[in-house]
Specification:
The protein has 1 helix and no strands. By secondary structure, it is mainly alpha-helical. It has one domain (1-32).
Length: 32
C-alpha cells in the first residue's frame, strides 16, 4: 500500500466525518 495514497484517503475520510458532524451539530442547534 502506498503511504501517500493511504494518507490522502485517510485525510479525505476524516474530512467527510468532520463535515457530517458539523451538519449534525447545526441541525441540533436549529431544532432547539
Amino acid at each position: 500500500m502506498n503511504y501517500v495514497a493511504t494518507h490522502v484517503t485517510t485525510e479525505a475520510l476524516t474530512l467527510k466525518v468532520h463535515v457530517l458532524l458539523d451538519v449534525a451539530y447545526a441541525v441540533t442547534i436549529v431544532q432547539m
